[in-house]
Design goal:
- 4% of the residues lie in helices and 24% in strands.
- A four-stranded antiparallel sheet has the order 4-3-5-6, with no helix packed on it.
- It starts with a helix and ends with a strand.
- 21% of the residues are buried.
Length: 118
């Protein structure tokens, strides 16, 4: 259903995790932080996204907390499963955050992590 909603086919290297309608909740002014199993911050925190319905933030730069490191596009330009910024040496980072347009579409909102590998 996720692939059909976004009109994509996720590649074999993409791992999709369903938050069961609980995570993520993107309603505006959220920020995200990625931590490892020892609670050390790996990426973020991001700036507080002022997302309105139908907006997508795509990573364009290294500093997650800077709004200049994100491009704001309409959700029709969301690219789940594909990234253009590959992290500049970061092994894993938050790459895209998207709110979905439409009644009940909140189940298709996503936070994407990009992992370059070890």
């Amino acid at each position: 259903a996720f692939e059909a909603f976004w009109s994509v086919t996720l590649g074999s290297s993409v791992v999709y995790v369903d938050g069961n309608e609980a995570v993520p909740q993107i309603n505006g002014l959220e920020y995200f932080e990625l931590s490892d199993d020892a609670s050390a911050v790996v990426d973020g925190p991001t700036f507080a996204f002022t997302t309105t319905e139908g907006q997508c933030y795509q990573r364009t730069g290294a500093t997650a907390s800077s709004s200049a490191s994100w491009s704001v596009v309409d959700d029709t330009a969301a690219t789940p499963g594909a990234v253009t910024y590959t992290g500049g040496g970061m092994p894993i980072f938050i790459s895209e955050i998207s709110d979905a347009t439409g009644t009940g579409a909140y189940v298709y909102e996503f936070v994407e992590l990009y992992c370059a590998g070890s």
